[in-house]
Specification:
Elements (H helix, E strand, L loop, with lengths): L2 H12 L4 H8 L3 H9 L6 H11 L5 H4 L26 E3 L10 E8 L1 E6 L2 E6 L3 E5 L4 E5 L6 E7 L1
Antiparallel strand pairs: 1-6, 2-5, 2-7, 3-4, 3-6
Helix pairs in contact: 1-3, 2-3, 2-4
């Protein structure tokens, strides 16, 4: 079971909801909720939004276990600056970015088509697709179209 699945299951149990009840509140199928909780399915950003809304918490609460209404302040000096050289490369790798194993990253494609390289595998993603991954595992992406793709990386925790 993934940390995300465990967190969703924990929030559901705190609210004394059955999987079927959470599925109804989030407009999902009970099977999908079961697969997410067991780690057999990685939900899209859209699906995470539905689940968070059903619980009445921000999406971040599904990852970090921070109670709703609390605040976590991160200081610039505590984290490495992630910068890209501005070249017209077709993608990048994370060799120079320090991410601890188990630290999750969300990759969301805003525009275009990309290939997400993760742990030796290649995943084709289009606008609206997302991937939740362990940031400590080797990964990178490349633009596949003639136009420049736009993607959002969110480092969680």
């Amino acid at each position: 079971m993934t940390a995300l699945g465990e967190r969703i299951k924990h929030l559901r149990a705190e609210r004394e909801l059955q999987q079927r009840q959470l599925a109804e509140k989030a407009d999902l199928t009970p099977s999908m909720v079961s697969q997410i909780e067991s780690g057999r399915l990685s939900p899209s950003l859209h699906t995470l939004g539905k689940i968070a809304s059903a619980f009445g918490v921000p999406i971040a609460a599904l990852f970090d276990g921070t109670p709703a209404g609390s605040i976590v302040v991160s200081r610039k000096r505590d984290y490495p600056v992630v910068s890209f050289d501005g070249s017209k490369s077709r993608g990048f790798t994370t060799e120079k970015v320090i991410i601890k194993p188990g630290q999750m990253k969300l990759f969301y494609v805003l525009e275009g088509r990309v290939a997400l390289h993760y742990n030796g595998d290649r995943h084709l993603l289009e606008a609206g697709d997302s991937a939740l991954l362990d940031g400590g595992v080797p990964h990178g992406w490349e633009n596949l179209g003639a136009k420049r793709a736009q993607a959002l990386w969110v480092i969680l925790g």
